[in-house]
Amino acid sequence: MSTFSPAPGAAPLTRQVAAQTAMEARLMLRNGEQLLLAVVIPIVVLVGAVRAAEHIDLGLSGRAVDVLTPGVLALAVMSTSFTSLAIATGFERRYGVLKRLGTAPLSRSTLLAGKVGALLVVEVLQFVVIGSVGLALGWSPEVSVVGLLLAALLGTAAFASLGMLLAGSLRAEATLAAANLVYLLLLAGGAVILPADAYGGLGDIVAWLPSGALGEAMRDACEGTVAFRDLAVLLGWALAGSVLTARTFKWE
User: Fold this and answer.
1) Within 10 A of 124 (CB to CB), how many other CB atoms are there?
2) Tens-place pLDDT, residues 44-63
């Protein structure tokens, strides 16, 4: 007769990350405000900018839809991995959710990995929806798969680390205000939608911002090339943000 032998202990790391990823993804997809940032605003920006370019000279070097669609894909990455993540995590701190997670066998790195995994799931959906809208508007990309994947992954890592930095060090209300303010500033002047050279003399400066580097890397990837310089900039932001987050993140 066999006997049951309990084996208490934490689940394997991969199972912890998978479970956290699934939970975070469900929460994001059920939240109307998150979907507004993730899908609705980027689509409105894409359609509006392409239609406006038919009447206003934006000084673009190519067809408006071919330049703007990769920029809106970059905007989608930024809105999800930075703004949505920062606000959601900030209020999780406020309501004690992170404190309860801290009592479970869930390390900071596991929590961050689960959140980043959920971001990637949502971003796949964003790319499908926004890409479909772009194609309907006449977008004709020559995609470098390697360049696109590296841009999405490093862009997500960079903005997620910065979002967690805000959420882990500021009060929830301050995180809400700061995340939205930074989002609007980068949307307007961060070379995420328009190329850096559209900003004239400021182009060389904004190209070093994570938004500018992500926008340029995404545009190059959709033209069939890999923007190693911009990817290196994103990697630098990701490393800096991760180090600062690890030192300053508070569970409550």
Assistant:
1) 11
2) 989 988 888 777 776 677 78
The CA R_g of the chain, rounded to the nearest whole Å, is 19
3-class state of residue 24 by DSSP: helix
Burial of 211 (0-12, 13-18, 19+ CB in 10 A): buried
Rounded CA separation 141/150 (Å): 17
Cα 47 to Cα 52: distance, rounded to the nearest angstrom? 8
Distance of alpha carbon 223 from the chain centroid: 21
| Percentage of the chain exceeding pLDDT 70 | 88
Roughly what angle, to the nearest 10 degrees, separates helices 210-221 and 228-248? Answer: 140
- In order of 23, 49, 68, 155, 190, the CA distances from 162 in angstroms are 22, 28, 25, 11, 15
Of 70, 175, 88, residue with least CA distance to 133: 70
**Entry field: residues in the chain:** 252
Give the span between the Cα atoms of 5 and 215, in whole angstroms. Answer: 55
Structure confidence by residue, pLDDT tens digits, 92-106: 777 776 767 666 666
Tell if the pTM clears 0.85, that is, is over it. yes
Q: What sign does the dihedral 137-194-188-148 (CA atoms) show?
A: positive
pLDDT tens digits, 234-245: 999 999 998 998
Q: Residue 45 corresponds to which tokens in the numbers above?
A: 């920006």
